[in-house]
């Protein structure tokens, strides 16, 4: 027997995130570390739980190993439940053959059986690659109040950037009359955040119709939303106010991390009433040594700091040796920065070591790019990783061979 | 396999200040831990899946900390964590069990112990700080065929330090030869009991009944001393870090040692495959705001530091505001230090608020303690 759930969340976590280069070489984008303690997916999962949603399907496809392991039973988010909880939903083989998820809509279509078990009134569709805090319960109230078939969360963006987004043109009461994907001449500054609430009966019908339409991209933005609009369904835009960031590129991931710094950070994680949950690493408290100097940075448990850290985000278990200098950088879990090494304007992925006296990146300035060093690498002592370089093991071998 | 038994309250009188509102087991230590985390983690790391925590009063904080035991993977259908609260029955032929001593507590739960399938019992107090490989101790215990094995640590005692310990003497083969319970003014190199024992269950059960029948109420005197020569009792030498928090001064000194002694930090927290596990609080990382200065300090997550912090232990969620200077202090969870305040040798309990411009100082030998929820 299954409990009926009023609202079930479906979290799209299968994207490759190719614009994060080496950071997503071995892991899906939602599992990329963020903000000292988190993975990107923690924000959406925590939003679900804080909004009272206890049944979440996570749709995985690209490099799911780390993501599966990270989600586990869902215990860190209180999603280890007998009725509902978190379910990881990978593509599967069926009687008629096996299909990868062909698009966002197809991913949900392939899991209609999963949804049917909970007999939900509403389905919340989310993407697992955005950083924000949002009360989905308030959005659901809005959806019910408008008696809508579909509600789309929208964010006001600067007009000059509007052409990068899917733009919702809506009437004063929020009813959407037009949707334009990346319009050249945007008519509104209300951008879709990729967060949808559907009345399940309607969604089910449109997903099946879409599946039976030859040549469809099976995508929410390209197919389902336009089809529903054309058919005259009740579609509403729900205005979201607050911090929201798509961290799908190296520069936006860097910026997102930097938004956590300062006395009044752009994105505040210190509010205990809307906690972001994560799987704990169980490290001891951080230790700051005699010669350490830390300015405008966030530092996490398990770190040992003997050097200089400025304007940076350090994840758990980072070791900074005496004389090492880190500026304007994001240093992920268990990185070792040896004595005399300098790291400027860089992102260094998990478990990597930067040898004595090595130099990574160049001081942040106009025209200088972010240097990225992938996971599980070892930059030998004295070597230089130039600014803007994306370093994986092949690239590192190439740089070392140059013997700089 | 073995089952664990932990006494949560027995040593409460050691630090009356910190145990006014909690058990000794739930006294905070080291920035994010409670004292029970050390022995409990050691048990869990040794593969013990069945742990009984015996508590008699003031156990609200302990219940809150341990919860279902899930942070230690002890929320289990079979076995797992069991909290044994006092059995104060109105109509009991056995009388009331308040677990006043170890022997009394063990006697009270002997019915339950008789039913367990575990052949070995690992029994411990919760006032000690160590990271011991209990799996190795169990292996040595089995190998030797002893009835009881006691963990001991060699210490150099001076003055009247000996009074807070039980001293266990043994021969070259590790056979226990003599015990002295809390002797006064014994100085020099001695093996002190870590109050961590492994017992064969059937032996212990009969010894408990025997000692209780003879009116004993102390485990050391009623069992260890009485069975000398009659039972096979061995010592297990541990050479890692060990400290017992016998007083607020001890507690303060031991905490301060964490800020200066890397070997102690590594021995406790970086032992391979022996993590010290605690309740997860999901705090964000700690924020070091422009203008802050931090040295020689152990700092938990979720803190916001705007002022100067030196030689301190900061627990989760502490705030040190602009212009304040905090030296040689232990600030418990969610302490707030207002702008321009100066603290030296101060211990603040949970949720203490120090308002702007306050100056407070204790002395390394006599730290100034501020109790829970106080505003200064």
Q: Please name the two chains that share the biggest interface, counting residues whose Cβ lies under 8 Å from a Cβ on the partner chain.
A: A-B, 40 and 37 residues
Low-confidence stretches of chain A: none
Mean pLDDT over the residues of chain B: 91
Strand content of chain A: 25-35%
Q: How would you describe what is shown here?
A:
Helix content of chain A is 20%, strand content 28%. Chain A has 404 residues and is of the alpha/beta class. In chain A, strands 5-4-1-8-13-10-14 form a seven-stranded mixed β-sheet, with helices on both faces. Chain A has a six-stranded parallel β-sheet with strand order 16-19-22-25-28-31, with no helix packed on it. In chain A, a hairpin with a 5-residue loop joins β11 and β12 (176-181). Chain A starts with 6 loop residues before the first strand and ends with a helix. The mean pLDDT of chain A is 93. Chain B has 376 residues and is an alpha/beta fold. Chain B has nine helices and 28 strands. Chain B has a seven-stranded mixed β-sheet with strand order 5-4-1-6-11-8-12. Chain B is globular, with a radius of gyration of 21 Å. The chains are: A alpha/beta (404), B alpha/beta (376). The A-B interface holds A 35-37, 75-76, 260-263, 265, 269-270, 275-278, 280, 282-290, 292-301, 309, 313-315 and B 30-32, 70, 265, 268-270, 275-278, 280, 282-290, 292-302, 304, 306, 313-314.
């Amino acid at each position: 027997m299954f409990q009926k759930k009023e609202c079930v969340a479906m979290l799209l976590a299968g994207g490759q995130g190719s614009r994060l280069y080496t950071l997503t070489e071995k892991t899906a984008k939602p599992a990329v570390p963020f903000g000292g303690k988190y993975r990107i997916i923690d924000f959406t999962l925590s939003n679900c739980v804080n909004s009272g949603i206890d049944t979440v399907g996570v749709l995985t496809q690209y490099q799911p190993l780390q993501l599966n392991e990270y989600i586990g039973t869902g215990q860190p988010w209180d999603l280890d439940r007998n009725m509902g909880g978190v379910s990881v939903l990978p593509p599967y083989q069926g009687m008629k053959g096996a299909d990868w998820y062909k698009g966002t809509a197809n991913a949900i279509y392939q899991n209609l059986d999963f949804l049917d078990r909970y007999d939900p009134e509403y389905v919340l569709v989310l993407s697992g690659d955005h950083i924000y805090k949002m009360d989905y319960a308030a959005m659901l109230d809005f959806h019910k109040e408008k008696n809508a078939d579909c509600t789309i969360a929208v964010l006001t963006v600067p007009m000059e950037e509007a052409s990068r987004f899917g733009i919702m043109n809506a009437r004063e009461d929020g009813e959407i009359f037009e949707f334009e994907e990346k319009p050249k001449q945007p008519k509104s500054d209300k951008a879709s955040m990729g967060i949808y609430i559907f009345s399940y009966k309607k969604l089910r019908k449109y997903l099946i119709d879409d599946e039976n339409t030859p040549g469809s991209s099976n995508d929410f933005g390209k197919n389902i939303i336009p089809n529903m609009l054309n058919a005259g369904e009740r579609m509403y835009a729900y205005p979201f106010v607050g911090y929201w960031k798509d961290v799908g590129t190296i520069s936006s991931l860097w910026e997102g991390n930097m938004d956590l710094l300062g006395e009044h950070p752009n994105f505040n994680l210190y509010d205990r009433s809307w906690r972001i949950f994560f799987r704990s690493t169980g490290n001891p408290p951080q230790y700051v040594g005699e010669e350490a100097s830390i300015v405008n940075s966030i530092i996490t448990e398990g770190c040992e700091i003997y050097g200089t850290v400025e304007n940076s985000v350090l994840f758990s278990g980072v070791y900074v040796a005496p004389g090492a200098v880190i500026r304007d950088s994001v240093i992920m879990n268990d990185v070792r920065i040896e004595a005399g090494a300098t790291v400027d304007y860089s992102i260094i992925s998990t478990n990597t070591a930067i040898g004595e006296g090595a130099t990574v990146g160049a001081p942040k300035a106009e025209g200088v790019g972010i240097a990225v060093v992938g996971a599980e690498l070892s930059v030998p002592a004295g070597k230089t990783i130039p600014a803007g370089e994306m370093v994986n093991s092949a690239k590192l071998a190439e740089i070392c061979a140059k013997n700089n | 396999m073995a089952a664990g038994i932990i006494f949560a309250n027995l040593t409460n009188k050691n630090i009356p200040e910190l145990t006014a509102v909690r058990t000794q087991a739930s006294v905070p230590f080291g920035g994010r831990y409670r004292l029970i985390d050390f022995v409990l983690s050691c048990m869990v790391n040794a593969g013990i899946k069945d742990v009984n925590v015996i508590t008699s009063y003031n156990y609200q904080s302990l219940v809150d900390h341990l919860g279902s035991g899930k942070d230690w993977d002890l929320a289990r259908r079979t076995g797992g964590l069991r909290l044994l609260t006092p059995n104060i029955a109105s109509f009991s032929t056995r009388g009331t069990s308040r677990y006043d001593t170890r022997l009394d507590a063990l006697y009270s739960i002997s019915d339950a112990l008789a039913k367990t399938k575990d052949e070995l019992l690992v029994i411990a107090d919760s006032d000690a700080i160590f990271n011991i490989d209990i799996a190795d101790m169990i292996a040595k215990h089995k190998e030797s065929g002893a009835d009881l094995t006691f963990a001991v640590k060699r210490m150099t005692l001076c003055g009247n330090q000996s009074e807070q310990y039980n001293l266990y003497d043994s021969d070259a083969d590790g056979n226990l030869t003599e015990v002295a319970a809390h002797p006064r003014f014994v100085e020099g190199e001695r093996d002190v009991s870590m109050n961590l024992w492994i017992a064969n269950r059937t032996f212990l059960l009969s010894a408990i009944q025997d000692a209780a029948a003879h009116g004993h109420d102390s485990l050391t005197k009623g069992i260890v001393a009485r069975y000398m020569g009659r039972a096979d009792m061995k010592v297990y030498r541990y050479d890692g870090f060990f400290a017992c928090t016998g007083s607020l001064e001890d507690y303060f000194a031991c905490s301060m040692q964490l800020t200066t002694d890397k070997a102690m930090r590594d021995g406790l927290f970086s032992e391979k495959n022996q993590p010290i596990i605690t309740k997860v609080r999901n705090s964000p990382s700690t924020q070091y705001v422009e203008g802050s200065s931090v040295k020689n300090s152990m700092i938990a997550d979720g803190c916001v530091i705007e002022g100067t912090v030196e030689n301190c232990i900061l627990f989760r969620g502490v705030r040190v505001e602009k212009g304040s200077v905090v030296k040689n202090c232990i600030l418990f969870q969610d302490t707030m230090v207002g702008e321009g305040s100066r603290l030296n040798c101060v211990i603040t309990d949970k949720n203490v608020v120090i308002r702007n411009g306050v100056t407070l100082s204790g002395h390394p030998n006599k730290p100034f303690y501020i109790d829970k929820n106080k505003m200064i």
